[in-house]
Design a protein that fits this description.
By secondary structure, the chain is mainly alpha-helical. The protein has one domain. The protein is 84% helix and 0% strand. The chain has 12 helices and no strands. Helix 1 packs antiparallel against helix 11 and helix 4 runs parallel beside helix 10. The longest helix has 37 residues. The radius of gyration is 20 Å and the shape is globular. The model has no long low-confidence stretch (mean pLDDT 86). Keywords: Membrane, Transmembrane, Transmembrane helix, Transport. One of its GO terms (molecular function) is xenobiotic transmembrane transporter activity. It holds the Pfam family MatE. One of its GO terms (cellular component) is plasma membrane.
Length: 330
């Protein structure tokens, strides 16, 4: 329990901070007006379905690295990390052209044309976040497997403030900057993810502890067997997560059939409730690492303890959250 909690709490706070990135976007979209909030809600619902599904797939890197560390196979760690970046490149090359078609897809689903135009403004500028956002997952998996989670938290919190500040300047047009509205918000979202990726990459590259892995050594020598393994294990996970997120995306689209105000109100409510999911999500990441380390070290007892500790902690937290929502409804 103690080992899991020590690893989990920075990851939980990092997930809450990551969610705060979208929360600040929603708040400032609301300042622009209901139609902008509705357009932004449709955009994020559409984009997140693909992004979070991809995160589920790429997240397989964490247990693979942890398993290799548990077995003290440092060469396998390097190969898994390098292959993880190739997986990110492949996913981005496939999905960016797909999300680029946001306007015809939303119109075919009966969405308001004005809100759809605004959604397209956001997605066309935010779509480039796939590369850095998924790259962050690879680096975060590497650090988490080593039990190093505080840099992840610090970098994510820094990203929250940068995101809010840049949105205030470029989305709203303050301090003499151009008012770019949702185009500005999309650009800021992609840019902040790139900044966080470069910060995390810089931390790993320049830290003496990790230089032995030679992260980008023989980068173009692709390990095809490991690439297939990541896709084989990760694709069912990614599709499952995508289906779960798709339920919320479908709800946003159904609200769009009712009207612009309904989409905007739904976006606010969903953003509040989504914070409750961040704690078990952070716990799941820590549990994945603990199980991977135990499996790599051949400890069945370690696997059992990590699993049950995580289930118990999640049950307690979600019981408290459920009670709060029932006693203090929106």
């Amino acid at each position: 329990f103690k080992a899991l909690f020590a690893l989990a709490w920075p990851l939980v706070l990092a997930q809450l901070a990551q969610n705060a990135l979208f929360t600040s976007d929603v708040i400032m979209m609301g300042w622009l007006g209901p139609k902008y909030l509705a357009g932004g809600a449709l955009a994020t619902a559409f984009l997140n379905m693909f992004l979070i599904g991809s995160i589920g797939l790429v997240g397989v890197v964490a247990p693979m690295v942890a398993q290799a560390l548990g077995a003290r196979d440092l060469r396998s760690v390097q190969r898994t990390l390098r292959t993880g970046f190739w997986v990110v490149i492949v996913i981005s090359a496939v999905l960016i052209p797909v999300v680029w078609q946001v306007k015809p897809i939303l119109l075919a689903l009966g969405q308001n044309p004005e809100a759809t135009d605004l959604a397209q403004d956001f997605v066309h500028h935010a779509a480039w976040l796939f590369l850095p956002a998924l790259g962050i997952i690879v680096l975060r998996s590497f650090l988490s497997a080593h039990g190093v989670t505080r840099p992840i938290l610090v970098i994510t919190i820094f990203g929250v403030f940068i995101n809010a500040g840049l949105n205030y300047c470029f989305m709203l047009g303050n301090f003499g900057f151009p008012r770019l509205e949702l185009k500005g918000s999309g650009t800021v979202t992609a840019t902040v993810n790139l900044i966080m990726f470069l910060m995390m990459l810089g931390y790993i590259v320049w830290h003496r502890r990790y230089r032995r892995y030679n992260m980008f050594g023989n980068f173009f020598n692709i390990d095809w067997a490991r690439l297939r393994e990541i896709f084989r294990i990760g694709t069912p996970i990614g599709l499952t997560v995508m289906a779960e997120v798709g339920l919320f995306s479908a709800a946003a689209i159904l609200m769009g059939l009712l009207g612009t105000d309904e989409v905007a109100a739904h976006a606010v409510a969903l953003q509040i409730t989504s914070m409750a999911f961040m704690v078990p999500l952070g716990l799941s990441m820590a549990t994945t690492v603990r199980v991977g380390l135990a499996y790599g070290g051949g400890s069945r007892e370690g696997i059992r303890k990590a699993g049950w500790s995580s289930i118990g902690m999640t049950f307690v937290f979600e019981s408290i959250t459920c009670t709060i929502f029932l006693l203090f409804p929106l």
